[in-house]
Design brief:
about 55% helix
Length: about 110
């Protein structure tokens, strides 16, 4: 994975610009990145809109050069992503690994066609 600088990722910048346009100020460290565009003050989106956050993160991951298999697994598992700082439980790791394996099976099947 490339060590991308968030300020150089267009999807990140688009979200920052949307915040600025909505609230008339720069996003602060305590402001939600996935803010509710219908709220009058900065607040998180409704949890039922989690798909929005996942899709936006996928765009950022793709722009940052994250491995496509990891992006697929992130989407397939609803947002799991193993890191050194936040390890997955054994069950989550099984789910993650299955999603990565599924990605490679699909890629292999596509190559055979």
């Amino acid at each position: 994975m490339n060590a991308a600088i968030p300020e150089k990722i267009e999807t990140y910048q688009k979200q920052i610009r949307a915040f600025r346009a909505k609230f008339g100020r720069e996003m602060g460290p305590d402001d939600p990145f996935f803010f509710d565009p219908d709220a009058s003050i900065p607040q998180f989106r409704n949890p039922r809109e989690a798909e929005f956050a996942i899709d936006l993160l996928i765009e950022v991951m793709a722009e940052a050069g994250v491995d496509p298999a990891a992006i697929y697994a992130f989407k397939r598992t609803g947002g799991l992503f193993p890191t050194d700082n936040v390890p997955l439980t054994p069950e989550e790791l099984d789910e993650w690994n299955e999603a990565v394996d599924e990605y490679y099976r699909k890629m292999q099947a596509t190559r055979k066609q």
